[in-house]
Design goal:
The structure is a single chain. By secondary structure, the chain is mainly beta. Helices cover 0% and strands 58% of the residues. Strands 1-2-3-10-5-8 form a six-stranded antiparallel β-sheet, with no helix packed on it. Strands 4-9-6-7 form a four-stranded antiparallel β-sheet, with no helix packed on it. β6 and β7 form a beta hairpin.
Amino acid sequence: MIFLNKDATPINMLPGLVRRTLAQTESVMLCEFTFDAHVEIPIHAHPHEQVGYVVAGRVEMTIDEKKFEIKRGDSYSVPSSVPHGAFTLEPSIIVDAFYPPREDYK
């Protein structure tokens, strides 16, 4: 199945943060997040496994109380129920996959 970017509905999650669900199956969901600079995703946890790839920009990620600075080309993973958050140091684009798909992102 093909999912066209033009059909992905932009959702304003926070000021300076837009989410688009790019594709999904019964098992996995792929989302694009476009951030302005200095956007904070508060520390949170969810039952979904999450892996992400930084398409553009620079981000400070906190995963399980450890801080990492990641940039274009870097990737990360967050196991189920592990606390994590982010702060964008510059305008950034991240693509995340969630297993299983997030019901709150549909």
